[in-house]
Amino acid sequence: MDNQEPRIPLLQQREIEARIAGPIVRAFAEEIGWDRAVVVLRKVIAQLAKESGAELARSLGEQTLEAFAGSLGRWSENGALEIEMLEQAPDRLSFNVVRCRYAEMYRALGLAELGSSLSCQRDFSLVEGFNPDIELERTQTLMEGAGFCDFRFRRGREPKPEERPAADQPAPPQRDDS
């Protein structure tokens, strides 16, 4: 007997989530203000995406960019995304999304103003949860009105400014244990 849970397509899962989250966020926005409600929504979605990224790494048994690239079918299933692959190498993955049915779905539900928070911003946290050494750069999305989404992944991210030693601080003293 197969112990696998039934899996619905991700686009359908996001629609179910949006039909619940959209009215809840709007209700909270009436009480606490739009900006604050969206900040809270983004925090929750980011945490869920980070957990999903970690689970993806566990399920694949590796955290490589190649393994991540092999998982793109989950987001694209049933034509949810149309992807134009530009580069796929061990340390780089670059593609454009030229059609996004997720964005179309949020617009059709009257939730275009929440689509980026519910969907697009997940990508960065998902990658962080999958492997914090993979960096994602994306400068535009279809959800925000661009002609395509530009996904550029690179293995071996640069340290963030707060992770770098300050240039004006002296190096720590060297110990001489002789």
Structural account:
- The protein is α+β, with helices and mostly antiparallel strands and 178 residues long.
- The protein has a single domain, classed as Muramoyl-pentapeptide Carboxypeptidase, domain 2 (2-Layer Sandwich), CATH 3.30.1380.
- Helices cover 49% and strands 16% of the residues.
- It has helices at residues 10-32, 34-60, 65-70, 72-76, 101-108, 112-120, 122-130, and strands at residues 81-89, 92-100, 134-137, 149-155.
- It has a four-stranded antiparallel β-sheet.
- Helix 2 packs parallel to helix 6 (112-120) and helix 2 (34-60) runs parallel beside helix 7 (122-130).
- The longest helix is centred in the first third of the chain and has 27 residues, at 34-60.
- It starts with 9 loop residues before the first helix and ends in a 23-residue tail after the last strand.
Secondary structure blueprint with pairings:
Blueprint: H1 10-32, H2 34-60, H3 65-70, H4 72-76, E1 81-89, E2 92-100, H5 101-108, H6 112-120, H7 122-130, E3 134-137, E4 149-155
Antiparallel strand pairs: 1-2, 2-4, 3-4
